Amino acid sequence: MSKRKTDEVTGVETTGHSWDGIEELNNPLPRWWLWTLYLCIFWGILYTIAYPAWPMISGATQGVLGWSTRANVAAEITAHEAANAELVTQLVAADMPTLPQDADLNRYAIARGGAVFRANCSQCHGSGAAGAKGYPNLLDDDWLWGGDIDAIMTTVRHGIRNTLDDDARYSAMPAFGDMLEPAEIDAVVEHVVSLSSSDFDAALAEQGAVVFADNCASCHGEAGLGNREMGAPNLADAIWLYGGDRATLHTTVEQARFGVMPPWGPRLKEADIRAVSAYVHSLGGGE
Amino acid sequence: MTSQPHQPLYAARTPIFPRRVNGFFRRFKWWIMAVTLGIYYLTPWLRWDRGASLPDQAVLIDLANRRFYFLWIEIWPHEFYFVAGLLIMAGLGLFLFTSALGRVWCGYTCPQTVWTDLFLLVERWIEGDRNARLRLHKANWSLHKWRLRLSKWAVWLMISVATGGAWVFYFTDAPTLLRDLLRFDAHPAAYITIAILTATTFIFGGFLREQVCIYMCPWPRIQAAMMDPDTITVAYRDWRGEPRGKHNVKNRRAAEAQKAVAEAQAAGAGVARYAGTPYPNLPATPAKPVAENAQGDCIDCMACVNVCPMGIDIRNGQQMECITCALCIDACDDVMARIGKPRGLIDYLALSDEPAERAGAAPKPLWKHVLRPRTILYTALWTLVGVGLLYALFIRSDIELTVSPVRNPTFVVLSDGTVRNIYDVRLRNKAGEARTFRLSLTSEDMLQIGLEGRDTLSVTVPADTTVLQRVYVSARAGDPAASDDTTPLRLWVEDVTAQIRASKATTFNGRGAK
């Protein structure tokens, strides 16, 4: 124990510790401060007994209160669902085309649908529903299989061209690479370009029109306006699912496209299907 | 070098028994206590008629509905800058007052000071003044002591419950909450808040007192940066008081005796025989001539120390513990009056006046101390923020909109080549009744506006609510806006009945947008 002495300037005793001649004054701390420290330690021990704390070999101690974040989340979700039970019942029973007339229920459906969309649909269609190459943009006014609320619900429930649901929307474009000569494909591509653009080779397009009438018009229509019965896209508008340049169109005609969407009926609750359909319908293209 | 016993590392609190004092500053403090406590306890009970759909409590922090009501002002969450501005003004005001007048906040208006003062009042009322309380403190735990202590704690507890109780009334309708509280069916949060604030009031006001100021509060440390030698603060005029000492009285009396002797001698030999009688215990003539024996005015009566709620001796100079409550001024003035000296041995003074006063000259006038660049700067900043807030308050409209352009994706192309942008527009109706708002846009280019789910451009917003409306702005395929990078536009909302308009500027992304 070092010998204690008093600092001359302040008249305060030092602790006796010295660092390069700098000494520490001993101005006593209030005793209640010490007791507060002991109280905190005591509280800390109680806390580790009450709550999950001490790491063991195969997990941590559970705590006598049985507190768990997972259980809390589950309880919160249950409470939330109980609070919304009335709205869910109304939504499941609702006549969807007239849903917007019930402002509160509509707002709930769209908010819930947004959450369902971000969790289940955004992986393909994008978080903003703008789609990507091969995955339709849900914000525009162009629909392959129909854009009214019932058509959207059917698509969500059964999906498209999947083997999981017998009621899935189905159609298949043939790969024309086996049936048409490359020159014929070039011609029909030029005709398709001519439907929505003014920058095309008129002579080639005229040849292509004949090929189109023989091979494509049965699904896409004589004017190329598409057919929602079989999900045949409108070729005369400004929207292209896979791309509207000649090279991409050539690939499309040669190899065909076969976009698949899984059925959500088995995975989502009825209320979720209705909600996500209402959400998609409200994004800007709903009919 | 020293033989005194070692100091402990931890010290028990030395109890302080402030003596009762009368005087100008004490009376001033009683008034401030009455006003501040009055404001605190009564404000939640003031009513203010805002119409049927809004609460009628004058000051209400409605956390559940995200509204703050202050008399005629209603603040929404996005207008929280008003509260932030008020807090900045409070901070600058604290700087101003501290740089001009020292720790007046601590000494007069700090809740810790006010409630401690109130608790001391109760303590004095039940247990008596300083000497009685000292005796009681040292006494054994008799029935008498238990009775006094328990009744003191009971009154403290009642004050504490009222303090915690008043707090929760600011957050919901006070009469309803009081009824619920008494029926024991109020929300648990109310009871928990009251319990916590009761405990803190009881412990801080009754037991921790000066420990809060010295060991818990950061303000005593911060304020050092606000004070300078021109700050008016509570100080002891040591040039007038020193050398202090009780013998001062003796000397004064000796001087009086000397004077009496001189007068008696002047009056004649016959009277001089009785010269010593008024002061039988004192020498008839001072040991030294009076002029050489001059003493300071301080008679070391400890009155300033005995009244101090912080337990310090102001004569030791400026100390971190001093909250400048000015009670020592009252105590000392009282003593100076009794010994026939001028008041102000302990007084509000600027330390920069010391050399002048020591030399016997008059101190600088008060305004020269108060009007300094820093106080002028603080006042200017304070006024600037205040005027800014008032301006913001008066240009507030009853209708507002915020526009969040949807930039995921940046734009959408429709089947006819039209380029469309989406905006999430929040329409706020702060009026007490439902209003119909009409949306429109202005732009130098050809742009069309449309609303999701509506055939018209009108939206009805219920009273005191916000409606989120998805708005579409589009440019036809051939228009410049469709192919340009961005086009500026302004979205307008108009209250059709009240003829008020509000607008927000935003941009439109064409195909050229990156």
From TrEMBL, chain A:
GO process annotations (BP): oxidative phosphorylation; proton transmembrane transport
Lineage top rank: taxon: Bacteria
Localization of this protein: Cell inner membrane
One function term, GO molecular function aspect: heme binding
Gene Ontology cellular-component annotations: plasma membrane
A family per Pfam: FixP_N
UniProt-annotated binding residues for heme c 2: M173, C216, C219, H220
Spans traversing the lipid bilayer: 32-54
Cofactor, free-text remark: Binds 2 heme C groups per subunit.
Binding site for heme c 1: C121, C124, H125, M261
Alphabetical list of InterPro entries matching this protein: CcoP_N, CcoP_N_sf, Cyt_c-like_dom, Cyt_c-like_dom_sf, Cyt_C_IC, Cyt_c_oxidase_cbb3_su3, Cytochrome_c_Oxidase_Subunit
Keywords: Cell inner membrane, Cell membrane, Electron transport, Heme, Hydrogen ion transport, Ion transport, Iron, Membrane, Metal-binding, Oxidoreductase, Repeat, Respiratory chain, Transmembrane, Transmembrane helix, Transport
Essential cofactor(s): heme c
Record domain Cytochrome c: where: 108-196, 203-284
Protein's pathway: Energy metabolism; oxidative phosphorylation
Function, in words: C-type cytochrome. Part of the cbb3-type cytochrome c oxidase complex.
Family according to the record: Belongs to the CcoP / FixP family.
NCBIfam families cross-referenced by the UniProt entry: ccoP (TIGR00782)
PANTHER family the record matches: CBB3-TYPE CYTOCHROME C OXIDASE SUBUNIT FIXP (PTHR33751:SF1)
Quaternary data: Component of the cbb3-type cytochrome c oxidase.
Protein name: Cbb3-type cytochrome c oxidase subunit
Organism whose genome encodes this protein: Pseudosulfitobacter pseudonitzschiae
Lineage of origin: Bacteria, Pseudomonadati, Pseudomonadota, Alphaproteobacteria, Rhodobacterales
UniProtKB/TrEMBL annotation, chain B:
Keyword Membrane: yes
Keyword Ribosomal protein: no
Keywords from the UniProt entry: 4Fe-4S, Electron transport, Iron, Iron-sulfur, Membrane, Metal-binding, Transmembrane, Transmembrane helix, Transport
Residues passing through the membrane, by range: 28-46, 80-97, 153-170, 190-208, 376-394
Annotated GO CC locations: plasma membrane
Stretches assigned to the 4Fe-4S ferredoxin-type domain: 288-317
A Pfam family: FixG_C
Molecular function in Gene Ontology: 4 iron, 4 sulfur cluster binding; metal ion binding
The name this protein goes by in its record: Protein rdxA
Organism: Pseudosulfitobacter pseudonitzschiae
